[in-house]
Design goal:
By secondary structure, the protein is α/β, with parallel strands linked by helices. Among the domains are: about 190 residues, FAD/NAD(P)-binding domain; about 50 residues, no CATH class. An 8-stranded mixed sheet has the order 6-7-5-15-16-17-14-18, sandwiched between helices. It has a 6-stranded mixed sheet with strand order 9-3-2-13-20-19, with helices on one face. Strand 10 and strand 11 form a beta hairpin. Helix 5 packs across helix 12. It is globular. The structure holds flavin-adenine dinucleotide. Flavin-adenine dinucleotide (FAD) binds next to helix 2, strand 14, strand 18 and helix 12.
Length: about 425
């Protein structure tokens, strides 16, 4: 899983165009704080920021560099809503917890864009809405149900018929869909670095290149050890999600790992640019193997889909990103792919995030299931509330024990088979 080079980041479009990381270095020697957070992705940085803003002392320890896990390499789509509908969330968790969870996470778009504004985070943020579409009858019916329920709850959703969708996106493949006008896009590495900078500004201490090897209880305190130092605190947050390494292997076992890869083209000509998602929205679909497209600030077409990037030109998966671009936007020709990278995200058994708390002072948030930009950012605030004394009965996220994800292997095989099938079918379509 480790594709991180000397720079501490995997090579990607985002690594090449991000705002610089704030200066940080390894933990050397002993230090103490109220809270130690392990992992400087969105969850860790948001937790550190929300705690530091409220005067709590925090040490954030990162094995590599800020954002080197999923947070700095994702697609950058700020989608405020889970894939699971509010009625399903309430059915799964009960009216009370489900209602709290729906309310807090539905405001996730405002939380993300609010933090960007408040802390003046320069991350190419746009909030022009994201489009979800389908080319099948069944897919359309699912989107319609999502649209109707979200709209009835006041979310800024709008249904798009085939022609309107084609006019807005320049893609004629889809039969219809909706736009969520509360959604948007960011440069993900710049965003997570911006959160880290804001946390540092509020007094948090961030140590990079500080992989945590052990976490041990000493009386009422936790001692967290790295190769060169140790940090002691009353609370520990392990915010390492699908990128957990060196500690707590049960975290990764609790999720189905979903590989995804992204390709980014060279900048499109201004003429082409005017024909593809000119309103700044992204376009995605709800196929078993979905794909999402967006344009970055320099006019590159970026596409994400499931699976790992092909390692050989002979693989049926080879050049998938370029093929997916010409499938949706044939008039681009097949644009040259300049950046290609991949990452893994953690899917929880019910596709909802949760927190594992083996002890009241030990917190393990995880399971964002592909919607981590909003969910992980929101989770940081939830954890800060929790650490500062919010009772379990008011927590807006389920507190579940960690258990191996059921059918983990089968899930993996199912998606792998669907991936190959989807790609073979789309080759002939
Ligand atoms: C390719 C891809 C595309 C995605 N696209 C989107 C999208 O468009 N929209 C969206 O909402 N979500 C998307 N996601 C999901 C989203 O990126 C994640 O849910 C989110 O970033 C998780 O954040 P995190 O902070 O919990 O974990 P991470 O960002 O993975 O951070 C965990 C950190 O912990 C560190 N760590 C691990 N072990 C240790 C240790 N022992 N000691 C110290 N540090 C440690 C890691 O190095 C890492 O930096 C995507 C994910 C991927 C992989």
């Amino acid at each position: 899983m480790n594709d991180i080079g000397e720079s501490g980041q995997p090579p990607s479009l985002w690594a090449a165009t991000a705002t610089p990381a704030p200066p940080t270095g390894p933990l050397d020697g002993a230090a103490d704080a109220d809270v130690v957070v392990v992992g400087a992705g969105l969850t860790g940085c948001s937790t550190a920021l929300h705690l530091a803003e409220r005067g709590t002392s925090v040490i954030l320890l990162e094995a590599h560099e800020i954002g080197s896990g999923a947070s700095g390499r994702n697609m950058g789509l700020v989608n405020p809503h889970f894939r699971v509908l509010p009625t399903q969330v309430s059915a799964l968790l009960g009216e009370e917890l489900g209602g709290r969870m729906n309310a807090v996470f539905a405001a996730g778009g405002d939380t993300v864009f609010g933090l960007i504004k408040r802390h003046e985070i320069s991350c190419d943020a746009v909030r022009t809405g994201n489009i979800e579409a389908s080319f099948t009858k069944r897919g359309l019916a699912e989107l319609r149900a999502t649209h109707d329920e979200r709209l009835s709850l006041g979310a800024p959703f709008q249904w798009l018929e085939r022609n309107t969708l084609a006019e807005m996106t320049g893609c004629e493949r889809y039969a219809g869909g909706y736009i969520d006008r509360g959604a948007g896009g960011i440069q993900p590495l710049s965003y997570v670095r911006g959160l880290a900078r804001a946390a540092l500004g509020k007094g948090a201490r961030i140590h990079t290149r500080s992989a945590v090897n052990t976490i041990a209880k000493l009386g009422d305190l936790w001692r967290v050890t790295t190769d060169r130092g140790q940090a002691t605190a009353r609370h520990v947050v392990v915010a390492a999600d699908a990128y957990t390494e060196g500690v707590m292997p049960e975290i990764r076992a609790a999720m189905v790992p979903m590989w995804t890869h992204i390709g980014a083209s060279e900048p499109l000509s201004p003429n082409l640019r005017r024909t593809i998602m000119p309103g700044g929205q992204s376009l995605g679909d709800n196929a078993t193997v979905p794909r999402y497209y967006r344009i970055d600030r320099d006019g590159r077409l970026v596409v994400v889909t499931l699976g790992r990037a092909a390692r050989s030109v002979l693989s049926p998966l080879s050049d998938w990103d370029r093929k997916a671009m010409s499938w949706a936007f044939p008039h681009t020709g097949a644009p040259k792919i300049v950046y290609r990278w991949q990452g893994v995200l953690g899917i929880s058994p019910n596709h909802l995030p949760f927190v594992h708390e083996p002890e009241p002072s030990f917190h393990v948030p995880l399971g964002y299931s592909g919607r981590g930009i909003t969910s992980a950012t929101v989770m940081g605030k939830i954890l800060a509330d929790r650490i500062l004394g919010q009772p379990s009965g008011e927590c807006p996220v389920p507190l579940f024990p960690l258990a191996p994800a059921p059918y983990r292997l089968l899930h993996g095989l199912y998606f792998r088979a669907a991936l190959y099938a989807g790609r073979l079918v789309s080759m002939v379509r």
